[in-house]
Write a structure and sequence with these properties.
about 375 residues; mainly alpha; two-stranded antiparallel ribbon; 10 helices; 7 strands; about 55% helix; about 5% strand
């Protein structure tokens, strides 16, 4: 099995195992708290119904009014500032869910807008991430040259350390600002920054949703948008170094296999035009010619390491013409087999640029042929 296939299967198994482990951990951490909260809310609901003597239907109506009015307490969401904030969450795939279109036209335009905007945003952040990595490598080289280090080139480990530091500083700085403006705890602010910059976007905590901040605090709105865009660029730089490295492994393995095949092909082409005799010798300088097999019962064909394919079923006559193009054997690799372990017909067979003939048909006494014998112990065959 190819290494690429093994890696793909391993990734699938690891991913599903990771999902199962995560589900078990979240179950143990959150299920008990969820149950207690539901019981507490149910007790409050029963208390309100008994206290004010209202029906269950009236309570459901009040509950619906409260839920529907909650988003409007943050101020107008669809003026230009709020609409720009919403467009940013769509393009960056964050998708908080705090404001969603309610009209058919808005929903239709959101789908069309996302089809074009999401690829555009991904390409932009990817390009910015590459520039950040290039700038980081220049800075590392300049620092090492100033310190007169022997090795000045920036490695992947160095770039990963730099990008990780930038990401940590971005989250830490953004968390401090959001904690001040939103009134959150610092840990909750760090959680919000991480969920935002990784484009998870649960929507349980969303900035710019208090005191009509979208319309009354333009500086805070500008800071939030810059934080999102700059932070996503840093995350894209991390993806260039981490995720894409694993994604391109399959391509690198395929290129390595192709290079090995081409190297084997180059070695095989050097033998083209030689004569491999039945006793295992190679006669150099012998030009290929058509040779007809003397045995009609032979059903097995052998070829040298130039690996030309031919089949007796496709040709009723045992007569073949040489084809010297190496493009027909690029997919074949030489397979070394000891010659003494093989039993084969000693009658002559003509292959792709190589003649395998019986030694009895070659007379070394004739001066015009002047064939030089090179004995070999191992030959490459393919049946």
């Amino acid at each position: 099995m190819k290494k690429q296939n093994v890696r793909t299967i391993s990734l699938i198994v690891c991913t599903f195992t990771y999902l199962l482990v995560g589900a078990a951990v979240f179950d143990s951490l959150e299920s008990e708290t969820e149950k207690r909260r539901w019981e507490a809310l149910q007790a409050v609901e029963d208390m309100i119904i008994r206290k004010y003597n209202i029906s269950l239907e009236d309570f459901k109506v009040m509950e619906t009014v409260v839920l529907k009015s909650e988003p409007h307490k943050a101020g107008q969401q669809w003026k230009f500032t709020g609409a720009f904030y919403y467009a940013t969450t769509v393009l960056t795939t964050i998708g908080y869910g705090h404001s969603t279109p309610s009209t058919i036209g808005g929903k239709l335009f959101t789908m069309c807008y996302a089809i074009v905007g999401i690829p555009l945003g991904l390409v932009m952040f990817q390009s910015i991430g590459e520039r950040v990595n290039r700038l980081s490598s220049y800075v590392i080289q300049a620092v090492r040259k100033s310190l007169r280090c022997k090795r000045t080139a920036a490695s992947e480990v160095d770039l990963i350390c730099v990008v990780t530091t930038l990401s940590s500083l971005t989250i830490a700085g953004g968390a401090a600002a959001f904690s001040r403006y939103e009134g959150w705890s610092y840990f909750d602010s760090v959680y919000y920054c991480f969920i935002t910059l990784t484009t998870i976007g649960f929507g349980d905590m969303v900035a710019l949703q208090k005191d009509n901040a979208l319309n009354n605090k333009p500086q805070y709105v500008m800071f939030s948008l810059i934080f999102i865009l700059f932070g996503l660029a840093i995350v894209a730089a991390s993806l260039n170094l981490l995720v894409l490295r694993f994604v391109t492994m399959n391509t690198e393995d395929e290129r390595r296999d192709e290079a090995q095949a081409m190297q084997a092909l180059q070695v095989a082409v050097k033998l083209e035009g030689d004569v491999i005799t039945a006793n295992g010798s190679i006669l150099s300088g012998y030009e290929g010619r058509e040779v007809t097999s003397n045995s009609s019962e032979s059903t097995t064909s052998m070829c040298s390491c130039s690996c030309a394919r031919f089949s007796a079923n496709r040709h009723k006559k045992h007569q073949f013409k040489a084809r010297r193009s190496p493009s027909h054997i690029r997919h074949l690799l030489p397979e070394i087999v000891p010659m003494q372990d093989l039993s084969y017909d000693t009658h002559s067979v003509y292959t792709d640029g190589l003649d395998i003939v019986d030694t009895s048909s070659v007379s070394p006494s004739k001066p015009h042929r002047q064939l030089l014998k090179r004995n070999v112990s191992l030959l490459s065959f393919r049946i």
